[in-house]
User: Fold this.
Amino acid sequence: MTPKRLLIVGGVAGGASAAARARRLNEACDIVVFDKGPHVSFANCGLPYFVGDVIQDESKLLVASPELFRDRFRIDVRTRHEVTAIDTDERTIQVRDLTADSLHTEAYDALVLSPGARAIRPPVLGIDLPGVFVVRTIPDSRRIRAWLADHQASRAVVVGGGFIGLEMAENLSHRNLAISIVESAPHVLPPLDPEMARPVEDHLRSQGVNLLLGDAIAKIEQGEDHSLVVRTRAGVELATDLVILATGVRPETTLAKASGIALGRRGGIRVDEHMRTSVPGVWAVGDAVEIREVMTGVEAILPLAGPANRQGRIAANDIFGHASRFRGVQGTAVCGVFGMTVASTGVSERALAREGISDYERIYLHPGHHVGYFPGAKPIRIKLLFRPSDGRVLGAQAVGEEGVARRIDVISMTIQQGGTVYDLEEAELCYAPQFGAAKDPVNLAGMIAANVLRGHLQLARWEELPDADVLVVDVRSAEEHAGGAIPGAINIPLEELRGRLAELPRDRELWLYCQVGQRAYYATRLLLQRGFRVRNLPGGIQTYASFTSPAE
Ligand code: FAD
Assistant:
């Protein structure tokens, strides 16, 4: 039966999408959106840049206003209205008008929950002191801006080195604050594998960021005037003018839980592929829900704007009888870090290990974001994970200054379509010198992986290098070798290799490397055809650097 009254809890990414789509599908329905905050449809993703003064006009963060919803869509948006209870039998909700401080009941035929997530606040002493902030809403960022101005802040401690933590670090640095980041994991950006996070960490340090990895805040104390002192578990003391908590979020499930709507094993609201909850007449979307991760099939919480928007649309489609289903998530994300771009899609090696999946192979490459002969080419460091049994692409991570997001988006689409490394090899991508290469980095990733699967190239594992009984051969030039080489490696430049074969043992495996992997591949093909046992150290010495200890 077509609902006559649709109520929506939460009016930002998922809720606003559901409301607007619902109106496009049905002119007759009464649609009411409740949000406990003062705004709807605001750009949470822009908040760090508002703090950093990159976005200076607060009104730019308001994508749509209640008036726009009313005039354009005839949707009734009620801000400062908190939904406090759901009666799923009676199909009613209880709403508190926070301005009038009054409580009333509203009936629904269909209800969409999009209450988002709440910031995790580490349970340490001093976490509620003035000067300690989270960044979830426009008022949060307004308070941070006011604090920066009122206290002439020059130092900040950011707790958490995930996407939002790093964006906040960049933006506060943009306002000339000295930044310390405290991250309890051994590396920044948890969706990445450690060796891919390493260049990001090096870059942060090169920008003057004081990076404390594998450490956590233990206590925050009031310092002199308005300053604070953050003490870490490792005993580090950081004097600061403000603290930003960016330690992740938890799905906001208070309402759902209290009204008997089932939660999943990750603690988010359980939904099916149509975004239906366990209770008829109630749908849920966005940060509050848990959904299937497509590569591993396990439930995941992925608090990102893209899935929230698409899920809002799908819920509205389903409510009004239009077939539509959410395909699951694969964790495609991008982040800017002090001029560097970091992006990933699909599973990481760590996630594969966590799920006990060992049927995978990985390659590394460092192509330019466009052809080298055109001025300004910047390298992109790419890691590709794929399944040897059928070539299916499992995941990719990329770090660089330019062209990173585009490559990850192409690979993301390949993953969504169930594509293989052969699809990447054959992908027809646009090319002109300033944009890419006739063999785009995506094609190169596919070609290298396909070479592995075709047996044209065998890979060595960097982790096994220290204990491997092999001869390591550096096929770079003598000058490059002299400038820094893997300990114990002999140097035979590729150009001299054919004339110096007698120097190489036939009873011992050779592990070849060069700067980024290309010359070593040529050398591998040459030596394999001459009967040598050869493996390639993927990604060359550029990747080796990421597997060795960081320079503190
Ligand atoms: P939200 O957008 O959080 O909206 C939930 C709304 O529900 C809130 O306004 C809240 O007030 C309201 N609400 C909750 N409970 C109730 C109740 N009981 N009654 C009434 N109202 C209620 N994602 C990206 O993909 N890329 C980015 O670059 C990115 N950057 C981000 C930067 C920051 C600082 C933040 C905070 C998030 C960022 N995100 C980013 C995440 C993205 O914003 C969220 O994934 C997305 O907004 C989730 O949408 P949602 O509708 O589930 O929840």
Q: What stands out?
A: The chain has a mean pLDDT of 96. The radius of gyration is 27 Å.
